[in-house]
## 1
Amino acid sequence: MKSVRSLSRRLFGSLALSTTLGLTTALGLIGASAAQDTIKIGLIVPMTGPSASTGRQQEAAAKLFIQQNGTTVAGKKIELIVKDDTGAPDTTKRLAQELIVNDKASVLLGFGLTPLALAVAPLSTQAKVPQIVTAAATAMITEQSPFIFRTSFTLPQASVPMAEWGLKNGIKKVVTLVSDYGPGLDAEKWFSDTITKGGGTVVENLRVPLRNPDFAPFLQRVKDASPDAVFVFVPSGFGATFMKQFSERGLDKSGIKLIATGDVTDDDLLQEIGDVSLGVVNTHHYSASHNSPENKAFVEAFKKANNGMRPNFMAVGAYDGMALVYKALEKTKGNADGETLVAAMKGMSWTSVRGPVSIDPETRDIIQNIYVRKVEKVNGELYNQEFATIEAVKDPFKAAKK
Ligand code: DHB
């Protein structure tokens, strides 16, 4: 945990974790919010900067959810307040404070990158306001506050099945290439450990800076190592840059197989990435082409409401975050007290557009299917086509501690 925090600091500037006296006082006065007639939900996401696609997708999904499910739950009016943190943790923290203290928000959602989720954890604990992480995916985030829940995924959850698929499909010698911060380090560790335990060899662990990444020198090292496969994680919004450099360096014709978490072949970017992604095998929890009646209806409605934009896994994280809040409020009969909501959310299960999901009552993380997919063309458009399912996967990081 410490190392991820210090990495975050290095990348995003210092996190002011101390709380001002003013805030402490104000947080002590917010108990009244439980009795309010309007329940406010704050959605804090990057709407600008390199992770802007996360904010765009999550805002669209949260709004669609409200449009479909109404603005009243258990007799209470719901108000969604959307804030752009630009991807800067100090801003995320300030916006969370304002939402809690000034707006008296009952729940906070969003958190597009791990350092942004971490910046708010001490506030959610102190104010007893549920913090639903709908995007960020470093495993340890949910351990930072008993008020944190997650409807996205964890990198260990996605990376272990990728390594297991590799072992069954003749991949023995690998190089890993990840963004150098929390989720990348999780992906690297859990993929590498699983491959090694299964008899494979990891010849290099390459870490690329998150901001303004130049993949070229790292791709040259992948080429020089000539592994069976290179395993890649970059966060949502960065996959097109990676794939462009991958093909420019001729890696797509090198015989080195590209395998990844689904963050790289993000539905939001696949059309832009183009045919170089064809055949890339990857593991994740959501594909826009997931074959279920719920998902077909969701994709159609999402596109209709957003000028044809295709939903990605970030959209689904926010859509399910809203579902979790609505379901919890129904259960508490509209009582939005933080501890009451936390108790209601633990163990909640529903049919998501991604498949069946539930909230692990012990870890507050999501339990969900992980799908093995391959990028293919369907009616002229690129999709991650699911071809195998690993059912009801818990976060392996927390399961290993038991
Ligand atoms: C994180 C961000 C992403 O965009 C993603 O795809 C996975 C993880 C994160 O910072 O936790």
## 2
Amino acid sequence: MPDIIQLLPDNIANQIAAGEVIQRPASAVKELLENAVDAGADEIRLLINDAGKALIQVIDNGKGMSETDARMAFERHATSKIRNIDDLFRIKTMGFRGEALASIAAVAQVELKTKRKEDDAGVYIEIENSVVKKQEPVAMEQGTSIAMKNLFFNVPARRNFLKSNPSELRHIVDEFIRVAMAFPEIFFSLSSNGQQVFHLEKGSLKQRIVQILGNSYNAKLVAVQEHTDYLNITGFVGKPETAKKTRGDQYFFVNSRFIKSAYLNHAVMNAFNEMIAKDSFPMYTLFIDLDPAQLDINVHPTKQEIKFEDEKIVYAFVQSAVKHALAQFSITPTLDFELDAGIQNLDAVNKPFTDEIKSSAASSSLYQTFTQKNQAHFVERRSDLSFPPRPVKGEMEIFYGEKFPIHQSVQQATTANITMLNFSGDLLQVHNAYIIAQNDKGYLLINQQNAHERVLYERFSNAVAGKPIATQSSLFPSTIELSAGDAVLLNELLPDLHQLGYLLEPFGNNTFVIQGTPADLLQGNEKTALEKMLEQYKHFSNDLKFSRREKLLRSMSLQQSIKSGTSLTQKEMGVLLEELFVCAVPNSTPNGKPTYMSFKKEELDKMFGR
Ligand code: ADP
Ligand code: MG
């Protein structure tokens, strides 16, 4: 028997390898654009014909190649970007595997034109099936143009697998956007069948986002910017109101490389938490930059999945950075906002993230440096902070009056918290609507209604999440009669209302018996409270963004919040502030209105030239 093992000829080996790197026109687009970026171009043009099936051409003004390099570039494992295995952990370029051009040359007809600055003439090379067909000098400017024609002309099975033109073009546009988004300092254009699709002037990231994703994001972007010794997170998230029903405008770049990560996406979603409806998707374009040694980008041929050395830390940082950004946008647009040191010391502000990662993240020295730099505001509430315990009724009334209910824990912790917040002097109410609280760094201006809405919202959310509000049963149950429509509505809400302390029983004919009410509701007010709540709920009910429960929580907190125009005592104001600053998200109402603004004394002094 003869021996049977043979080495594959290069062109066949390349064709097989090409299957991994070049699955469709869009994959070639990605590789060619990345090569142009790596070549230091600041103008990159992409031309497409027939959704890339007939032509994909990338023209750049980068550094170009020498004649020898131009031929070498098409060899498999030919790269100028790494020399040894250690270089893999110092990758600064988009490419490094040296496979793209070899793969492209194996499955298309390629025409390369390239010229370096120092060369008098450029070189033109034609390749087909991995074989050089033609080479000659060419007059041209510095840069490179690579045209690949008739993709998969020699692999009919693959060509048949390609989708319709609109679908392939969509993939191409996606890849184009991913690269263009990552490099706003580079001019990019895309034309398809001679028609210009994108023309992206050089500019800031913000401009690039608006150029690509549309004007609707103009003035609706919140800057994310956190710098730590371990990693930097920069970029933008869309304000909550720009969240869409469809996933799409979401981009992560790690060291300028677009990646897909359900895990990190979760971190962002978590940061938006209740600011957007559960089934809607916020826009984000986030850049995570860290030491390449902390990464393995080599786990996937197209490098869209990467491995972090410590994924949990990255998760924690991303979540925290986005929360911080969202917290800031709802504060003051003009003054540079910083929480005063007292607030930062609050557990609610200082404690990390979700339960699972809490311990590992907190013990990490990386996390310590992060929080030390005061970057981790508005992280989630400690889960062990019992919230909200029921007020003990009698005590509460003696101590605080009854305009709004307060929690036992707050009552007990009052003195301690006040020193932590470092507020000094009396609280001042102005216009019966705002509270001024000062410390030696400056003052907070709190909107009482917004603040109370936040407090109630969190209390009610906790109630429906499993810590029901106690019900006091009515001595003389009253009935409430509703329109047929409202009765249907109320019926839907009964289970959640029960969690919130309302015990209602359908009594037929659109009538309900009120058997019990939340312990802190004044007896006799229950009917009006319910009717107003329903009214408020109906306001929300066209809003498909929110679940029934979410609408209920929002209506109740809106409706029951102390309104502007209500005069408050020192104690009531004190309690309100205490309750506000143990909230998970103290800085805004559920709808994203600010609850307070901060004015630094330093800034005031500056404004007045002191
Ligand atoms: P990789 O990018 O992984 O190095 P490629 O096959 O994509 O592998 O490219 C091979 C080499 O060809 C690159 O390392 C680079 O030196 C050169 N090259 C490719 N495209 C360009 C370009 N547009 N301008 C200058 N050099 C290029
Ligand atoms: Mg490359």
